[in-house]
Amino acid sequence: MKENFYIPSFSYCRKIKVQANGKEKFVDVSTPYTALTPVAVPGNFSFVVAFTLGGLFAGKDYNFNILFVDPNGKAITESTLTVAPLKKNFSNYAIQASVDFVNAVLPVEGIYKTVVKFGSDILGEFSILVQARGTGK
Hints:
Elements: E1 6-21, E2 24-32, E3 35-36, E4 43-56, E5 62-69, E6 75-83, E7 93-106, E8 110-118, E9 121-130
Parallel strand pairs: 3-9
Antiparallel strand pairs: 1-2, 1-4, 4-7, 5-6, 5-8, 8-9
């Protein structure tokens, strides 16, 4: 059976924290971003992308590539998200995932995007504005 991956939720934020309430765990997204606003552009900025990734099968491991791409189409940074095999007997499940981008270099203002890939397949592209603080264009 072939996977049918999907991303039902995606967010840019300042940080995430995993909370526990008894046996239950949940992800707390702190300070969601509608734009990334470094002090200056070009400049560095740290942020987290948090998302849900579904369509996984138990007993299989997966490697997903997460790219952050500038307005000119150049990948600024790339990360690999490895999902270890789930030992439970689920035929289809979803996970909460996050990737930290620490001091990502943002060379120009404009619309950037995060691209989630599995092999050569693009599973999703998620855009966000990068603009220096106080420029108010």
